[in-house]
UniProtKB/TrEMBL annotation:
Enzyme Commission numbers on file: 1.8.1.9
GO molecular function term, any single one: thioredoxin-disulfide reductase (NADPH) activity
Oligomer and partners: Homodimer.
GO biological process, one term: removal of superoxide radicals
Entry keyword set: Disulfide bond, FAD, Flavoprotein, NADP, Oxidoreductase, Redox-active center
Organism: Cerasicoccus arenae
Segments forming domain FAD/NAD(P)-binding: 3-295
Reactions listed under catalytic activity: [thioredoxin]-dithiol + NADP(+) = [thioredoxin]-disulfide + NADPH + H(+)
Free-text remark on how the cofactor is bound: Binds 1 FAD per subunit.
GO cellular component assignments: cytoplasm
Name of the protein described by the UniProt record: Thioredoxin reductase
Amino acid sequence: MENVIILGTGCAGLTAAIYTARANLEPLLIEGGQPGGQLTTTSEVENFPGFPEGIDGFMLMDNMRKQCTRFGTRFANDMIEKIEVIDGVKKLTAESGKVYEARTVIIATGARPRLLGIPGEQELWGGKGVTTCATCDGAFYRNMDVVVVGGGDTACEEALFLTRFCSKVTLLHRRDELRASKVMADRTLAHAKIDVVWDTVPEEVLADSDGMMHAVRVKNVKTGEVRELEAKGFFIAIGHIPNTTFASEILKLDDEGYIVSDHESGVHTEVDGLFVAGDCSDHVYRQAITAAGMGCRAAIEAERWLAEQPELAEA
């Protein structure tokens, strides 16, 4: 039986592994469907402390993985489909058919952005114009025109944030009224740099001869009119999907599927010995550094919890 099993190899999972490995808990880290998490698809990370010139997202995650390995973390290439707790033992059934057993589990499975599924979206992802995070990538579009798609609070927040850098922000919304809170909607509509285009959906992200985004083809859902909006950046802000389905039978999830924390630390769940960290629980900040911080907290809380369970230590 393992002392600690960590699910997910993004910033939260790898940080939890570093801390639990250094505490001599010999963690087993199960990688899941996207080893390294969302940052592996990011060409440059400028807001992670310690890298004044920025760092490639894949390289950052690879460095964290090497750090985990240095302290003795073991890795398993598998995907967990179900968690059960039997007499205090956490039983994890994997896609491979293998059943893992642990005294504690740290769930750091992250979330994936909800995408549009339109042509050009994948082809121009990662430094070529298409992104889902203004906080992460907004500074790359300084003095450029950009497009944001969405109509809720997240889309309004992204649009407002981008006005700090961009010449113009066009907000596309498929309806004729924003779904955002009144305060956010009013602030967005009043901003001189933001132009809201109503009743309109994106149909394709277009690339120039250098393979970089140069425009978005959009369609008015009422008139059928199709036109192109010139822009260098396309920010998709229609929500995220937490990777938590496998835990839905044992843990409390909110209306959007995020795991609910039941403790002031923010990492305890309602089940003793099950901890959570990163974007599968955090739908507010969703940053690499906040995920890493939660991974640290989850690891320390797991270590403390194990120290208080002598009967498990002897099992």
